Amino acid sequence: MRALKRYDRRGFTLVELMIVVAIIGVLAALAIFGVRRYLASAKTSEAKNSVGAITRGAAAAFERETAASQILAAGDSSAAASHSLCESADPVPSGGPPMGVKYQPDATEGEDFETGTATGGWKCLRFSMNQPIYYQYHYLQGTRITGPTGAPPDPGATGFEAGAVGNLDADAVSSYFIRGGSVDAATGQLTLATQIYIENEYE
Q1: How far is CA 124 from CA 50, 85, 89, 192, in A?
Q2: Residue 39 carries which DSSP code?
Q3: I need a labelling partner for 65 at 20 to 30 A (CA). Which of 18, 81, 91, 101 fits?
Q4: What span, in angstroms and rounded, lies between the C-alpha atoms of 118 and 121?
Q5: Please, are residues 98 and 60 in contact by the beta-carbon 8 Å criterion?
Q6: Would you kindly state where each structural domain of the chain is located, as residue ranges?
């Protein structure tokens, strides 16, 4: 009977407590890392989705036939319809990527994504964003952005580049999400890059 009572009063040893605390510490560290990576992935998905949408807009604009407005005399024929890429659009926001904060695009006519014409800029791409954004977006025709240290595909003079530049942790390193396309001179067909080029994804 005396031995049974002694067993009921037995507590945890110091070693057992240290093992439990160590396990809790490891699990907490993994949880914090996982949550941070999840939040960063949620932010970068904005860039990936938007660059994909800009690329699709550029491809759709190229597929549309463009014909000049003409007044024809009797017996004359109009010029043949052509396919062409949209001309470059101004980056949004214009002052560079938001530094760890969000930027609210200005939906006023002539501002941010509400600029361009039927043949150039964001209106030609039929692309706009009304929600706050973490990245600066650009579309360049016949050239490419400077800044990436890697080697994103070069679209060349007959191509375009759609991209996003970000700086989620507001340091000296920027992240780049770039996808381009190029028009084949022989066939006249637009070929897109197989996937988005990503550099410093979580910066």
Answers
A1: 16, 9, 9, 18
A2: H
A3: 91
A4: 8
A5: no
A6: 36-66+81-199
